[in-house]
Design goal:
five-stranded mixed beta sheet; Nucleotidyltransferase, domain 5; 9 helices; alpha/beta; 12 strands; about 300 residues
Length: about 300
């Protein structure tokens, strides 16, 4: 192994930041996790740089560094935009982190990192066109085509979460307000909080999406109804992706992807809504779980 081949990926989240060192074969050498100082931009830069250096000291090599972030880098300004970690917005994170590290760090949208991971050696391995989906605190997406991340002219490829929910019904219109300033975005219907809120409207109780899943497994009709509604909305949204992109596989990630019941009849429903007579796109759970984003960040230097 040489210094040029060691990779460190960093996954910058709203509450935690995780770093992972990978050897050239993709094997994990080291993992570290810290709390994210989410309200202090300067502290975020400082903590990421310190985390990287501590790993390099322990391993004894300098690494190529990739960082997955909520939001994306604007091609116009070079700054982070559209991030729900608000202190990152309009900040030149790549420049500032590169200065703190003394070398270039590659910055990429966290859903793109997830997709890169799953397309490289995960649930989408060997597929030509992979659409990766995050169903978590927010809803994101990424697109890999023949082994390369597709970013697009506006660096927006895969951002299905901020399209309006397709085939919106009268009781769904105009939709909940989204942090982006619009109403009815896919994200507002398909994030984990939306599933919990749907159950809350039905039951009057405030519980987590994971608890909704647990109650559905126990036969709770209100929980079953909430998951059925969620699955139908997910199918409508994914069908629009199939109609435009027609991927070889769709890989789901994020907390909601761990709810097995969501997958039941999902492919059939997507096929019903998509402009096809028979859906040939499997919709599968990710292989690397919570580590997929940080693994994808580590692979960023190999994605061009």
């Amino acid at each position: 192994m040489t210094a040029q081949r060691l990779r460190i990926g960093v996954d910058l989240g709203g509450t935690k930041t995780e770093a992972m060192a990978l050897d050239p074969s993709g094997e994990t050498l080291l993992r570290r996790r810290i709390r994210t100082p989410a309200s202090d931009y300067a502290a975020i830069v400082k903590e990421i740089a310190a985390l990287v250096r501590s790993i390099e000291v322990e391993i004894g090599e300098e690494a190529r560094v990739g960082v997955g972030v909520p939001g994306s880098i604007s091609p116009a300004s070079g700054c982070i935009r559209n991030s729900n970690t608000l202190v990152l917005s309009r900040r030149p994170l790549a420049e500032d982190l590169g200065r703190a590290l003394g070398r270039e760090a590659r910055i990429e949208n966290d859903a793109n990192c997830f997709t890169l991971s799953e397309a490289t050696d995960g649930a989408g391995e060997g597929r030509a066109v992979v659409f990766g989906v995050i169903l978590g605190t927010g809803v994101g997406g990424g697109l890999m085509v023949h082994g390369r991340l597709l970013r697009g002219a506006n660096a927006l490829a895969g951002e299905w979460g901020h399209n309006p929910l397709p085939r919106m019904r009268s009781d769904e219109y105009p939709g909940p307000p989204c942090y982006c300033g619009r109403n009815g975005c896919v994200e507002t219907y398909l994030c984990g909080g939306a599933l919990a809120e749907d159950y809350g409207r039905r039951s009057g109780e405030k519980i987590t999406a994971q608890e909704v899943a647990r109650r559905a497994d126990g036969g709770d009709p209100l929980a079953l109804g909430a998951i059925d509604a969620y699955r139908d909305r997910l199918a409508r949204a994914l069908a629009s992706v199939v109609n435009v992109v027609d991927p070889d596989v769709i890989v789901l990630g994020g907390g909601v992807s761990n709810i097995d019941r969501v997958y039941q009849e999902l492919e059939r429903l997507v096929g019903d809504y998509a402009f096809t007579d028979a859906l040939a796109t499997p919709i599968v759970k990710n292989r690397h779980g919570d580590s997929s984003g940080v693994r994808g960040a580590a692979w960023l230097w190999d994605s061009d």
